[in-house]
Amino acid sequence: QVQLVESGGGLVQAGGSLRLSCTASISTFSSYRTGWFRQAPGKEREFVAAISRLGHSTYYADSVKGRFTIFRDNAKNTVYLQMNSLKPEDTAVYYCAANLKLYTTDANEYDYWGQGTQVTVSS
Question: In 3D, which of 92, 50, 95 has the Cα closest to residue 70?
Answer without folding.
Answer: 50
